[in-house]
Write a structure and sequence with these properties.
alpha/beta, Rossmann fold, five-stranded parallel sheet, 21% strand
Length: 147
């Protein structure tokens, strides 16, 4: 199973931490996962750069909700609706959880690595299983009836 993950961050250290997290998850799940980080100084720059041309290369997007927020989630969903979004926030509770899901995030995770790692690992595993199931369905019926 192969998967590509886009990490959108405003902090280089956090981006590196997330990349290491994704590599560790890939090793534990015996998957090939290609993480690529994009570090933006401002939300405005992220909004200008994130287009369908970039996003259509990725299965999953892990982003810093605390720094980038709803506008960036909506931009990603508008440009590439099929991209799954994991929004990382400062705490496990609060209004940001509802805001992130309302904006289009598929899952919200706390930025604390001890809490985030197992949840992200579980989410990536579940998503990989879904992708595998979709591939099997496609292989069973390579010529679907077009109406």
């Amino acid at each position: 199973m192969q998967m590509s993950v886009l990490i959108i961050e405003t902090n280089r250290m956090m981006a590196a931490t997330l990349e290491q997290c994704v590599y560790q998850i890939a090793g534990e799940l015996d998957m090939v996962i290609r993480p690529i980080s994009m570090v933006f100084i401002t939300r405005e720059l992220a909004l200008r750069v994130l287009t369908g041309d970039i996003l259509d290369q990725f299965d999953l997007c892990v982003m810093n909700w605390s720094a980038l927020g709803a506008d960036v989630v909506r931009q990603i969903k508008r440009a590439m609706p099929s991209v799954r979004i994991c929004a990382l926030g400062e705490t496990a509770g609060g209004n940001w959880l509802v805001e992130a899901l309302d904006a289009g995030a598929n899952i919200t995770l706390p930025k604390d690595p001890e809490q985030m790692f197992p949840a992200l690992k579980h989410y990536i595993n579940e998503y990989a299983l879904l992708l595998e199931a979709l591939e099997e369905v496609t292989e069973v019926d390579p010529h679907p009836i077009i109406q």
